[in-house]
């Protein structure tokens, strides 16, 4: 009898779920990051990044661009925070507007399809993020948490439908979003 078969099966499952493991690890490392008003503001700014990625990938019509676009947006966020010249939410809003104008000019925004859906998602999640930045900090925390939670649901719908972004990205982002929402609600 081969005793290595069950061990291989477990590792195969873990390797197939690497996005979930990565999301859980990053969320664990960020524990306590959302506990202050500054942490909530940072998470509101990052919330703007999430639907922007979907919008850009839908505009490009290249699911394989999901991870490179995420890397570019995260680097942008880190640089904007370090330079402290412009709020990341303002920058991401401007980029979203530019992508939306590009989609309108080439007609993609006027046709039913993934880009139009992502434009609506950008508007809804962007509104939650911006509202979270301007209202009372206690209410803002719950608005930002709702944005993260609903974006997690958005990710899982895209994972199930296998649309717009890479499946590995949708899985990672869905798990990460739900865990961040829980951190915000419970102020871990």
Order of helices and strands: HHHHHHHH
- Point out poorly predicted stretches: none
For the report, how would you describe the main beta sheet? none
The percent of residues in helical segments reads over 70%
Shape assignment:
globular
- Cα radius of gyration in angstroms: 18 Å
Q: Strand-residue fraction?
A: under 5%
List the helices and strands and how they pair.
Elements lengths: L3 H13 L1 H12 L7 H24 L5 H18 L4 H18 L8 H21 L2 H25 L5 H20 L2
Helix pairs in contact: 2-8, 3-4, 3-5, 3-6, 3-7, 5-6, 6-7, 7-8
Question: Would you kindly provide a written description of the structure presented here, covering whatever features stand out?
Answer:
The chain has 188 residues and is an all-alpha fold. It has helices spanning 4-16, 18-29, 37-60, 66-83, 88-105, 114-134, 137-161, 167-186. The longest helix has 25 residues, at 137-161. The model has no long low-confidence stretch (mean pLDDT 90).
Concise overview:
The protein is an all-alpha fold and 188 residues long. It contains eight helices and no strands.
